[in-house]
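Z., the sequence and structure:
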Amino acid sequence: MPFAAGTVRRDLLRGIGPDGRRHGRFGVRVRADALRPLGLHPEQPSATVTGASLPGW
């Protein structure tokens, strides 16, 4: 992985839902300064929404 230690955070959220079944969700967060060496930064045109939203199926 191209990221240094401490720049990526992984979370696991789990519990029992209202129907009694177990459920879970993974979360992955990467520090913004760790993305710059990969050429990803907020000044990029693709970092902002430029078109219409997708249909709400």
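DSSP finds one helix and two strands in the chain. The mean pLDDT is 82.

Let me know what you think.
H.
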